[in-house]
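Annex B. Sample input.
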Amino acid sequence: MTSYADFIRETLCPWRPVTAKRMFGGHGIYHAGVMFALVADGQLFLKVDDESRPAFEAAGLGPFVYEAKGRRVALSYYKAPDAMLDEPEAAREWAERGWQAALRAHLIKKAKEEALPRRKS
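Annex B, continued. Sample output.
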């Protein structure tokens, strides 16, 4: 694990227990098995949704964007504020925003999966 992902884990542990898993050249940051943050290119990004995005935009924080097949693709993760890594209260506040957005997305996905008809064997 990179030292930056370890630093993120240690910073967020007072908030809730978190784990980091390598993925796509970066790390996914998880709580309770749900990914709520992403470490990529030496930066921390938090999960956003329609409910949480305005707080990130008001703070001047933008989306995680990458190139794929000559196109720019934006994910539903926005850059975390720098203060989050220096101030414990900011870490808790912003991590909670990311976690709540991830949890809402997880619950919506789970409900959709449960609504699908099951195939007969």
